[in-house]
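input
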Amino acid sequence: MARSRPLSNRFLPEPQAVARRSGKPSRDLSRNPWGPREMFAEGQWQSIRVALERQGWSAQQIERVHDQLRQGWPLTVARHNVAALTRQCPVHGRLGEA
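output
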């Protein structure tokens, strides 16, 4: 059965699917799927974390944003959710939205 629409680019493909397409063996992500090279639609987690730190987000808020991203929320929605949950928004928290 053919798909009526193209696959979404929102989520990364499973490592097995990438290996089948490229012909290269994939690295085993089952041990630590949330490592330093985590990728989200908005970019690599380390760069997102640094940007949040620069904007004044606390360590607890950053972890909550990380959890929201893992659940599939876009970064803007994750930031909004965390600000609403903690009832705190960093002073420079809106700088990255432009």
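quick obs: Residues 14 and 29 are 10 Å apart (CA to CA).
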